[in-house]
Write a structure and sequence with these properties.
CR_Ser/Thr_kinase, two-stranded antiparallel sheet, 2 helices, two-stranded antiparallel ribbon, 6 strands, alpha+beta, Transferase(Phosphotransferase), domain 1, protein tyrosine kinase activity, Ser-Thr/Tyr_kinase_cat_dom
């Protein structure tokens, strides 16, 4: 199902491997690691981002989340949005990754639980 959900601000699933008890998902490679690394990582990995670029990252992330909530079939909630799950491509465009805690919800659901899930 993850491989069929496509949006410019979602990480693309390339493939998977199942061998015995081991499960591996292979995603596209994103050159600039995560937003957490760019903003908070070791000094050699940090990047000074202009406020306009930071705003673009916020808007791209919001666009990806809006797609998941409103336009994806089936609709889903990520439930673990944080800086380390926002990956950045070569031009610092954001792509949401790590759907391990994502939850599907049917069309007839009119609200989403705010119960805490994922990283505090």
């Amino acid at each position: 199902m993850i491989s069929q959900v496509q949006h410019p601000n979602l990480v693309q699933l390339v493939g998977c491997c199942i061998e015995g008890p081991y499960r591996i998902l292979v995603y596209e490679y994103l050159e600039n690691n995560s937003l957490a690394t760019v903003l908070l990582g070791l000094k050699g990995k940090r990047v000074e981002l202009a406020w306009s670029k930071r705003a673009e990252i916020c808007m791209g992330t919001a666009s990806g989340l809006a797609f998941l909530h409103e336009d994806a079939e089936p609709r889903m909630v990520h439930r673990d949005i944080k800086a380390s799950n926002i990956l950045l491509d070569e031009n610092f465009r954001p792509k949401i990754g790590d759907f391990g805690l994502a939850k599907l919800f049917p069309d007839n659901v009119t609200h989403v639980s705010t119960r805490v899930a994922g990283t505090m």
